C-alpha cells in the first residue's frame, strides 16, 4: 500500500524569472542547493521528458550512511512553472511542482509543492528525508539567486 503526502514552501529572490527558471530546471546545478545530492548525470530524455537525470544522494539511517541513485525527469519548464518527477525503487516518487511569478518591487516569488508517494513501511523515513532536504534547499535558494549575474549582490 502506498502512502502520499505533500509539503510546500515559498522563497523570494531578487533575480529575473529566467535566472530562477534556469537554476531550478537544471538538475545538474542542484548540487549547490540540495544538501543530499553528491552527483548528477544527465541522461537521454525519457519519452515525454524535456530532460532526464540520474541523481545520487548520500542518506543516513542512524549511524549508517549509504548512497542511493534515482532517476528524475523534467516534464515542464517555463518562466511560470516547472514540473519534475523523481522515481526510485521501490515504488517511490517525488513530484516537484514549482510556480514562479514577479511581485511588486522586482522580487521573484517561488512557490514549491513537493508530493511524495512511497510504500507504507518506507514512507515516514522517505518523507522526513525529502522534507529536510528540500527545506535545506529552500534556505539556500534566495542567496544563490540574489548572487546570480544581474542580481543585487552581483559584482561587476
Provide a compact summary of the structure.
23% of the residues lie in helices and 48% in strands. The chain is of the alpha+beta class and 156 residues long.
CATH architecture of the domain at 2-35 and 74-146: 2-Layer Sandwich
Shape: globular
- Sheet of most strands: 7 strands, antiparallel
- Kindly state the number of beta strands: 7
Class derived from helix and strand content = alpha+beta
The amount of beta strand, in percent, is over 45%
Textual characterization of the structure:
The radius of gyration is 16 Å and the shape is globular. A hairpin with a 2-residue loop joins strand 3 and strand 4 (64-77). It has helices at residues 17-25, 120-146, and strands at residues 2-13, 37-43, 51-61, 64-77, 81-88, 92-102, 108-119. A 7-stranded antiparallel sheet has the order 1-7-6-5-4-3-2, covered by helices on one side. With 156 residues, the chain is of the alpha+beta class. The chain has a domain at 2-35 and 74-146: Alpha-D-Glucose-1,6-Bisphosphate, Chain A, domain 4, CATH 3.30.530.20.
